[in-house]
Amino acid sequence: MDKLIKLLDSHPGMSVEDMATMLGISYENVAKKLDTLAKEKIYMGTKTIINWDKLEEGNHVSAFIDVKVQPKLGKGFDEVAYTMSRIPEVECCYLMSGGYDISIKMRGKSFQEIALFVARKLSAIESVLSTTTHFVLKRYKDDGIIMENDDVDDRGNISL
Known about the structure:
Oligomer: single chain
Order of helices and strands: HHHEHEEHEEE
CATH topology of the largest domain: Alpha-Beta Plaits
CATH architecture of the largest domain: 2-Layer Sandwich
CATH superfamily of the largest domain: Lrp/AsnC effector binding domain/regulation of amino acid metabolism (RAM) domain
Distance between the termini: 47 Å
Structural class: alpha+beta
Helix content: 25-40%
Largest sheet: 4 strands, antiparallel
Radius of gyration: 21 Å
Mean pLDDT: 87
Strand content: 15-25%
């Protein structure tokens, strides 16, 4: 199973047929193992990364929002984190160390849409004490993918 997980991690879009060939096992065996991994919530599927900046209709703004919360007695941070995770606009939700407790990532059509989300939805959650919003101005790398052409000729920058 470890080889399959490593293959999924390094080649997320690979077909089951190709995985079977690379692992030297049958298609049915790979499909069965993938099903088991999915049921156990180990394998959560693949994700497409869109470079919205390259599209005319790509009016999207991304933001990371740090949230300070008051954990609930006996439930800790889990209850408020799960509440935030269920909000459709929230793409990612993490429990963090440091000055803030929870960090979320979201995308909207404008800075104003994200600001209104924070003011009307996020701040309305009972345990939320404060928020800090960081707007993404430009993406250089996202989920391991370089977003722009990185074919830079650096041969002249070699120091001896």
